[in-house]
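dude i think i finally got it to work??
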Amino acid sequence: MKVLVTGAAGRLGSVVCQELVRRGHEVLATDQRFISGLPAPLRLADLRLALAVYPLLESKDAVVHLGNHPSLDAGPSPQAVLADNVAMNANVFRTAAELGVGRIVFASSLQAMVRLDQGRPTEAPYTLPYFPLDGQAPLNPGSNFYGLSKEFGERTLQVLAQCRPELCCTALRFPKLVNESFLQRIKQSQAPSALNWGEGLTYLALPDAAMLVALVL
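look at this
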């Protein structure tokens, strides 16, 4: 399968590229910044510009869209995180639909369905529909602009899938994604106190997240 991976220079993107190439897919990677060592050709592009997206998706069978600001603190401001992520998602999703790309896998977040105050846990009691959460939990990001950007992305995919039944869309609501050093601290009972309601009280190792993407694809 010919696959475009956006956000390929990120922590998850680089691992996803490795996993997809290992499984025999023909991968094109894209990001705003260059990194060496990717197992796939890397093309620099700004996904906020619609004209930059069309040549990347031409003749592709699928797109794994990871190219967003990864948290509320990753952008210059909450407003920029919301605006940039919405622009990137809209451009990638609409272009994929127009060019006949058959599959879209989108890296959403648990923060799309857990109500937070500007990305931080609200005061107890927490307003959860039920617990443990699953993929059927309703969207409810509160005033968290990062979560709102993911909510908009999921709703955009819903609309496109309804308009184009041949388009297969999947939104993966990832929790906190962690590397091997974090897992070692977990085993030694020295993990940072970063697991909160905003991440569903859980985490997922990066290789497992990449395997999930590949299996869904």
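The beta strands are 2-6, 26-31, 42-44, 62-65, 103-109, 116-117, 120-121, 168-174, 176-178, 203-205.
im so relieved honestly
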